[in-house]
Amino acid sequence: MSTGPSSTPQRPAAATPRSLSGLLPFIRPYRVQVGLAIVFLVLAAASTLAFPVALKVLIDQGLVAADPGARVMQLREHFLALFAVAAALGVFSAARFYVVSWLGERITADLRNAVYAHVLRQSPEFFESTKTGEVLSRLTTDTTLVQTVVGSSLSMGLRNVVMGSGALIALIVTNPWVMTQVLGILVLVVLPSLYFGRRVRKLSRASQDRVADSSAIAAEVLSEIPVVQSYVQEGREAVRFDRSTEDAFDTAIKRTRVRAVLVAFMITATFGALLWGLYQGTQAVLAGSISAGHLGQTVVFVIIFVGAVAVLSEIYGDLLRAAGATERLMELLAAQSPVGDPAVPRALPPVHGGSAVAFEQVEFHYPSRPKQAALHGFTLAIRPGETVALVGPSGAGKSTVLQLLLRFYDVKSGAVLLDGVPLTALRLADLRQRIGIVPQDSTVFSTSALENIRYGRPEASDDEVKAAAKAAYAHDFIIALPEGYDTYLGERGVRLSGGQRQRISIARAMLKNPPLLLLDEATSALDAESERVVQQALEAAMKDRTTIVIAHRLATVLRADRIVVLDEGRIVDIGTHDELVLRGGLYARLAAMQFEMQPAAA
User: Fold this and answer.
1) pLDDT digits (tens, 9 = 90+) for 363-382
2) Which of 388, 441, 446, 546 lies in the 20 to 30 Å Cα band around 107?
């Protein structure tokens, strides 16, 4: 039996910018592009910082020349130098923007693909505790936040860090005494901002969780819209969704309010500190300690520094939101399925005419119901090519047998074997490649009839697909569709009847041609005419392979080689239909109720 950590994502209290380190594995493959982005970023920042120096030279040298002609020439040279700086800034900024945007889109696509592929490999236990809508929210909303930061905010933040640091260093070098006073004031600015930053982190995470809740409600309701409308619950569901979005709105407003206070405080305090520095500078000019060009340079450096601080205070909030989104995505990637491939998998032996299946003293509890045994002391051997039917009341454990065979779960004790090999010793792909299933609710994807059947074996040719459709009695109704096999069947196959969807599902299983076929209530939801046609298709599918059939309608299992009667997770009887009726047990009672009711139902 495989063991492992719970697949349920665990949520910490709050994200920090350090959470963005989870993106490093997705950034490493693009080291060259990251290096180029950093080079262009530094060059753009350097071009910006060169502007005040060129301005100082323009004022001190271009405007003070005595000869008017010389002054014109010097001004022309200095303005050309300023234009060169501006052109360099434009080119380097454009290059930085392109490379960083490319990185944002590429890394986000890789992240989204990795999360989706990882979720697809989770066992059903994961989906018992995680809503599909929440997963979709993380794949869309959270990855979009990450894309915004990686493709824009992070680059802008680094650029402003470089520019702000450069401007600050220049101010300290050119005005050491004044800037020492300013820095002392700025230290006092940082302390309150730490408090606001913690509040923003907590509210950012809460806001994202509320958005995920809304997505989960919408996904659940929209997937079951016929039930919602048939019970006239559209208004109630709209109110429930509205309440959820209002909760998300309220939380977002709280986060925005705190961020607004943080931004206002940072900008006001920083401006106040630097205006004090400018005041000291103007006094120095009046006293003759520095030149007018020096003051002009100082003013521009101050503008660059203040602008950088203002941008960083805005970006910091985006970083916190992206950190929360990254953390939620990393939680999904960290979720480990308790069912996985063994370290050293075994190979399945070749089979002809069906697989052998064996359950040996199986004990199993669903993770969500640990105190209630779904199967208890379950022992059953099925010979190759045999058709075995599982019958019993609801909750007897019939569907559990199929889920264990597909290894959606691992048994608590005992063993399940396929062709003599324990399922836990097999690669999941090797195991499931030998099994075909026709579920009670047939899944039809939003694509063509041809591609829906080909889902059973993607490499199959068109002729092989059509042969499977004919064998499943689906060919006639498919060619009657507007575009035949190329007809789009709609989401969840809404353009088909229940019997038609079921025959598509049977054709899919027949195309796969597995040695073991599982039929889970394949005709329970059909009318009499559809059931007759589908039953013919099932009989064709059951030829020359091992078949396990679950059916509430006992008429569908009369031809089974053996009927296994289950009750409360235990086998209570095994035999043919006639043998079980003669014994007068649970099966006989079920048969009496169904066959006596049939004439009335007809």
Assistant:
1) 998 887 888 888 998 999 99
2) 446
